[in-house]
Model the fold of this input.
Amino acid sequence: MSRQELLDYLLKEIEKSGIETFNTKSFPLPAAVNVDDKIMIYNSELATPFGLAHELIHILNNDIHRGEYFDAINPQETRANNEAILLLWEIFEANGGSYEYFNIFVDTTESPFELAESLIRNEYIEMHEAITEIFEDELKVSINKQEMHDYIVDYISYFDVIETVSIYEFLDRYHLSHNFYNMAEKEFQELFGIG
Done:
């Protein structure tokens, strides 16, 4: 789904919620909703998918006392930011997106990178752990030191320069259980001559 398609979709969802929308390029903010009066004003030149999803979350939660536009300590604003990212991620996945294309997700939705990464990574890890827990008794996966070594050599061959290594990303890329974290960490250290 392109950025414009996503904007159109979110505007339709806002209108379905009984909110009348007004586009005005002179509005100084990307978007603002008044749930009581059932109106939303937005500036189509400034509006982002993240911003519209944020306002949609306010509508769905019937938030009426929100404070300032960028009030990060207001619980309603924090919740709207978090839930907007999760809503956009759900749409992204429904349209064929996956964690491997996280940067495309951020570019398309214009979500705050650090917040999106934190939330999506937690969702992804929780899902992986839940699946592992469900099938833990059925799947008895074992891996020997040589197999781990081969996976790591393959993994590092994709990089020109390696400054840091995320072992969880490595394990996820090769569909290995996070139970192999210590084994992978030790093998990375041996390969890089650390420790």
